[in-house]
Amino acid sequence: MRESRFVPPSVLYRQRRLRLLVLAAALLLMLVLAAGFWLGQMAAYSGMGIDPETYRRFQQEVPEAHADLVTLSRELQVERTRHEVDRRALELLRGDLAAQKEQIASLEEGLRFYRDLMAPGEITQGLSLRGVELVQQGNSDRYAFRIVVQQEARKHVTLKGELYAEVSGTRDGERVSYPLADLSEDFDGSAMPLRFRYFQAIEGELIIPGGFVPETISVVASTSSPRKAEARGQYPWQVQERFTHVGK
C-alpha cells in the first residue's frame, strides 16, 4: 500500500500563490500585447491620416474591388480582341480597295487602248508596238511574256507580216543577245507570224540561261500585205506582278 506524503500547509500556500502569479503574469502579458497591437494600429492610422473605421470599411471593400478588377481585366481583353479583329478586317478592306483600284486603272487603260484603235484622233496612224510585259513564274528563271502589235487607223484592214524579238544583256561580263525564238518554245521558227485587223498579242514563256543577266528586249514587227510597214522598239527588262488588260 502506497504511503502518502504529508505536505505542510505553508508549502501548499506557496504553490497556489505561484500559480496565481504565473496566471496573472500571463494575463498581464496578453493585455500588454493587445494594447501594443492596438496602439500600433492607431499610430499607423494616425501616420497615414486614416480613420480606423474607414480602414475597416476599406478592408471590407477589398474583395469587391478585386472582383471588379478581374471583371474589368476580362472586359479589357475582350476589347483588345475586338480591336485586333477590327484592325485585321480594316487591313483586308484596304487590300481589297487597293486591288480594286488597280483593276479599275487596268480596265481604264484597256478602254483607252480600244478607243484609240477605233478612233485614233491625234495618234499617228499605222503599225505600232505597245511594248513588252514580263511576269516571273515563281522564283525560277522562267518568265511569261506578252508583246502587243496594233494598227491605228480610221479604216482597219487585215495586216499580214511577222515579228522578231531578241533579249540582250551580259554574261560573264560580256554583251550577249539571244533571239527570243532560242529562249521560248512558243515561237515557230525565228519569227512569229502576224495576221490581225486591230491588234495581235503574242504570248508565251521564255527561260533565261544560267549566268545571263537580261537588260533589254528589242522587237521588230513588219507587214508585207496589203502594204509594207515596220515598227521597232527597245524596252528595258522590267518584271511586273501580272499582265494588264490591254490586248485581252
Quickly give the CATH architecture of the domain at 125-236.
Answer: Sandwich
Major sheet details: 5 strands, antiparallel
- Approximate helicity band: 40-55%
Average of pLDDT:
79
Secondary structure class reads alpha+beta
CATH class membership of the domain at 125-236: Mainly Beta
CATH topology assignment of the domain at 125-236: Immunoglobulin-like
Q: How large is the share of residues in beta strands?
A: 25-35%
Fold topology:
Elements: H1 9-48, H2 52-118, E1 126-136, E2 142-152, E3 159-171, E4 174-179, H3 180-183, E5 192-196, E6 199-207, E7 212-225, E8 229-236
Antiparallel strand pairs: 1-2, 2-6, 3-4, 3-5, 3-7, 7-8
Describe this structure in words.
It contains three helices and eight strands. With 248 residues, it is of the alpha+beta class. Among the domains are: 42 residues; 112 residues, Immunoglobulin-like, CATH 2.60.40. The strands form two sheets. Strands 3, 4, 5, 7 and 8 form a five-stranded antiparallel beta sheet that branches. Strands 1-2-6 form a three-stranded antiparallel beta sheet, with helices on one face. The protein is rod-shaped and about 155 Å long. The mean pLDDT is 79.
Brief descriptors of the model:
single chain, 248 residues, Immunoglobulin-like, rod-shaped
Summary, kept brief:
The protein is of the alpha+beta class. It has helices at residues 9-48, 52-118, 180-183, and strands at residues 126-136, 142-152, 159-171, 174-179, 192-196, 199-207, 212-225, 229-236. The longest helix is centred in the middle third of the chain and has 67 residues, at 52-118.
